[in-house]
Amino acid sequence: MLKGGGPSRLKVPNTVKWLIVLTSFSAIGYGYLVTAITAYLPEMGVSSSDIGLIIGASGLAMIFCAIPFGILSDRIGRKWILIIGLVGVPAAMFLCTFSLDPTYFLAASIIAGIAEGALLSTWNAMIADQTTVDNRDLAFSLSFIVNGSFYGIGLALPFLFPYIQDSTGMSSAQVHSGAFLVLGFITAISPITLLWLLRDYRDKPKGSKVRRGSLLKERSKKTLVRFSINNTLIGLGAGLIIPLVPTWFFLRYGIPDSTTGPLLALSSLSIAFAAIFSSRLAQRFGQVKGIVLTQGLSTIFMVAIPLMPGAALAGAMFLIRSALMNMAGPIFDSYLMGIIDKDDRGLASAINSIVWRVPNSVTTFIGGSLLAAGYLSLPFYLAALVYIIAIAAFFINFRNIRPYEEDAPSSPPPG
User: Do the Cβ atoms of 268 and 151 come closer than 8 Å?
Assistant: First the structure.
């Protein structure tokens, strides 16, 4: 149940809303980069194992950077680290305009991974710092809706490419490179506008001291250890097939990125639509039960994907699976920020992302190798098995743990 305090406590602060909207321009670039790597490169003859390697490199870059960024986020503030991360996105976009050679995509993927490390160590913590237990689920749901929609736009862009080629006479390579150039400028909107939005923003109140000693408080350590069990397993299972779904559709049905891009976009939009109901789900069943319910149902539909007799039905199962699995996303982030000490949120976000990404990066390469060897169904079944173990572990570890309710924004946001 939501606590009292008046209707205003249930509203997302205006600065948080603007933070979400302005940052979402970067999501367009991320979406298009994912489509280009996983759907366009196979059309160019790049093997699925090499694609898995490119995706994995991004994860490794994030892993090496997230912890230092998370420590700095908690010690000196989150604002500049967030902006640094946003600058990396247009840098990756512009790099891909020079060539569609896989080496350039590998470099861009690494840059995007570094940027992701900065974003993951600041984003959730920054939202949590400016919200309370009462409105935090709403804020994270709004973040998923807006970013999911913009991410979907990036994923869907290749749908327009055949029409652009027909009307202009440009080659496929020229259209793809041109899209990266345009997106370089679009994604630059995020860091530029946030410099203005956060011009008077202070992470730490005046006179506050930098904390020394242990990187995490004891209470946060114990919570993160248990939370990491679930996230490690989810990352392990997801990496086997989820980043490679466009590659799977190409290998199974010969579908190009002009089709799988829009499919991924619909998936992203379904995630955004599902996020609308996530806060209601948390209120009705509680955060832990809501997460377990949606993740469990999503696993059933993931197993169904390779069993479908055609691409259309397989795509439908994928969309339902994505909506259900990611309906838990806003609740998951909000729940973690609520059970972690406020001074540890940046580092906790970084660690939580790392324990998901490390196994995810490893198993993406394994999943790509399985697809290259012709085992097109096995990655789905292995992923489902790992998911079941992860969901059970999460429920056992957190069924009786509630978020702290003393939270309030430590310093009023600007504007």
Answer: yes
Contacts of residue 13, defined as CB under 8 A and 6 or more positions apart, other chains included, come to: 130, 131, 135, 139, 409, 413
**Closest CA relative to residue 227, chosen from 345, 352, 128:** 352
Burial track 269-306 (b if 16+ CB lie within 10 A, e otherwise): bbbbbbbebbbebbeeebbbebbbbbbbebbebbbbbb
Question: Measuring CA to CA, how many Å separate 45 from each of 38, 81, 200, 250?
Answer: 12, 37, 50, 12
* Global confidence as pTM: 0.68
pLDDT in tens, 199-248: 877 765 444 444 455 566 777 777 888 888 888 898 889 889 988 888 89
Angle formed at CA 106 by CA 102 and CA 110, multiple of 5 degrees: 165
For residues 366-379, give the mean pLDDT: 91
Q: Can you read off the two tokens belonging to residue 66?
A: 């997230």
Q: How far is CA 80 from CA 96, 195, 347, in A?
A: 25, 9, 15
Contact 37, 105 (CB under 8 A): yes
272 CB-near residues (< 8 Å, 6+ apart): 144, 145, 146, 147, 148, 149, 152
Q: Are 67 and 347 in contact (CB under 8 A)?
A: yes
Taking alpha carbons only, the member of 332, 338, 333 closest to residue 406 is 338
- What's the rounded Cα separation, in Å, for the pair 301 and 319? 9
